[in-house]
Amino acid sequence: MIIDTHTHLDAHAFDEDREAIIRRAREAGVDRMINIGFNRETIPTTIELAETYDFIYAAVGWHPVDSIHMKPEDLEWIASLCTHEKVVAIGEIGLDYHWDTSPKDVQQRVFRQQIGLAREVGKPIVIHNRDAHEDIVNILKEERAEEVGGVMHCFSGSWETARQCLDLGFYISLGGPVTFKNARVPKEVLKHVPLDRLLIETDCPYLAPHPNRGKRNEPSYVRYVAEAAAEMKGKSLEEISRITTENAEKCFRLR
Ligand code: NI
């Protein structure tokens, strides 16, 4: 049994065969999934999935790329959804300095507001970090994010950055890129991350792991990430599945 801790099953890429993909995931041993709603369009579809399938949980938040469009009522809306029994986290939130769609100061304000919300409602946070390692760590510290914890999703930073996030109590989640042949940095993070702080994910439909790199990703492929982790850590696939499942249950308080 494996938990895919980061999916976008409501994405249009799955419009033709969503049910079949979800069934295939379950048949492949992916018994639970956490779907991420990150804007006005994907939050309702994420909630709908979580209400349809008892094994799909929801995270809701405002993506940094769209920060510029977040209105005060959007934050209130997200806050109101936190009482929903299937909403397990605030996210994905964070900073994205790769796409130039929202100014840095706006991204940082929206990120801080949502960490504040997470602390208010006592939910863990799902962090999206692209090319913003230093600011992410500083803001997590300044906003006392360690009080709620959470996960660094599809972590792409160095081991040095990972260590700072671990010090703040965060889990490190690895996805498809760790299976790529040339993925020196993610492999190094995987090598060093303590087993009790490791999560796995697909981020589907994006970032499909080897040998499906470049194709549409789906939750059943999380197995390739688990296999990479098993190999690096010298564990069996079953052990890695059990350990990362327990970690996910703890991180997202699934029990
Ligand atoms: Ni995502």
Summarize the structure in short.
The chain has 255 residues and is α/β, with parallel strands linked by helices.
Explain what this protein looks like in three dimensions.
The protein is an alpha/beta fold and 255 residues long. It has a single domain, classed as TIM Barrel. Helices cover 41% and strands 18% of the residues. It is built from 9 helices and 8 strands. The protein has an 8-stranded parallel β-sheet. α8 crosses α9. The mean pLDDT is 97. Nickel (II) ion binds next to loops. The site of nickel (II) ion has 5 residues, from loops.
Looking at CATH, the homologous superfamily is Metal-dependent hydrolases
Q: Any idea of the CATH class?
A: Alpha Beta
Terminal-residue CA separation: 16 Å
Uncertain residue segments: none
The number of strands is 8
Helix content: 40-55%
| N-to-C order of helices and strands | EHEHEHEHEHEHEHEHH
CATH architectural label: Alpha-Beta Barrel
Determine the oligomeric state from the structure: single chain
Please give the domain count: 1
Class from secondary-structure proportions: alpha/beta
How many helices in DSSP terms? Answer: 9
Shape: globular
- What integer is the average pLDDT? 97
Sheet-strand content, in percent, reads 15-25%
Distinct small molecules: nickel (II) ion
Cross-sheet strand order for the largest sheet: 1-2-3-4-5-6-7-8
